[in-house]
């Protein structure tokens, strides 16, 4: 049995007597990350939710031969929660690189893109922050910058801004990302590995992201992408890539090489299948 995430792992009583793996234990999206000007009641609720979740996950783990997490950070968090459970394996989220290698679009001048459903609170927070605090600084140099937001718009209302297009769900997001000059990931909350960054890397679209957004991805600032956590730094980084296409393309090429070496599913799938075989072997040969 491969029980994907906490919701499925909760059914462990239904498959007692069968080798089982708890796949992609999620912790980052539950962990409190300090104040973001939240009311004290919200902060208290976040701490209580974290305490309950970590106790619940620790109770689930002994029912599984192995578990996997998407990043080294979540591996360390899980080891703190369940110090007596040694069967934690890091298998990052990955993509099938063969689906991206032949997509080469001509870049649209001054174009930025953000991909992701705004029904997910981390994405909605990212776009609210970007449009309020970052985009105006980028646009202050002129009207030659545009932003496209793909994915389910949800019910939340974004701040008003010029040259912003919300496409809603698109048939193939790869075409949109491939045509953009810069992919942005101003994520400030949540956990796991961001597929939007891996997809941008695979499509050779330069990326500007927060430190939070690249958790679980071994990308180096200034080599594979630009990292920025303050509004002024984020705006400056976006403009740097827009104004220096040669640097941006060189960075994108290195990011593509990183995905090919470490985040291609054709490689990581073998690691996961080996874990499945080991779980079955250990179960049958206690």
In short:
With 286 residues, the protein is of the alpha/beta class.
Backbone structural class: alpha/beta
Quickly count the helices.
9
Q: How would you sum up the global shape?
A: globular
First and last CA, distance: 18 Å
Across the major sheet, the strand order is 7-6-5-8-9-10
Number of strands: 10
Query: Roughly how much helix do the residues carry, as a percent range?
Result: 40-55%
Proportion of residues in extended strands: 5-15%
Overall residue-averaged pLDDT value: 90
Q: What is the gyration radius calculated from CA atoms?
A: 20 Å
Largest beta-sheet details: 6 strands, parallel
Which consecutive residue ranges, at least 5 long each, have pLDDT under 50?
A: none
Helix and strand element order: EHEHEHEEHEEHEHEEHHH
Relevant terms:
286 residues; 4-stranded parallel beta sheet; 42% helix
What does this 3D model show about the protein?
This protein has 286 residues and is α/β, with parallel strands linked by helices. Helices cover 42% and strands 13% of the residues. It has 9 helices and 10 strands. It has helices at residues 5-9, 40-60, 72-81, 121-139, 173-179, 195-202, 231-243, 245-262, 265-284; strands spanning 2-4, 21-23, 66-69, 88-90, 111-115, 146-150, 164-168, 182-185, 207-209, 226-227. The strands form 2 sheets. A 6-stranded parallel beta sheet has the order 7-6-5-8-9-10, with helices on both faces. α6 (195-202) links the parallel β8 and β9. α4 (121-139) packs across α7 (231-243). The protein is globular and about 65 Å long. It starts with a strand and ends with a helix. 35% of the residues are buried. The model has no long low-confidence stretch (mean pLDDT 90).
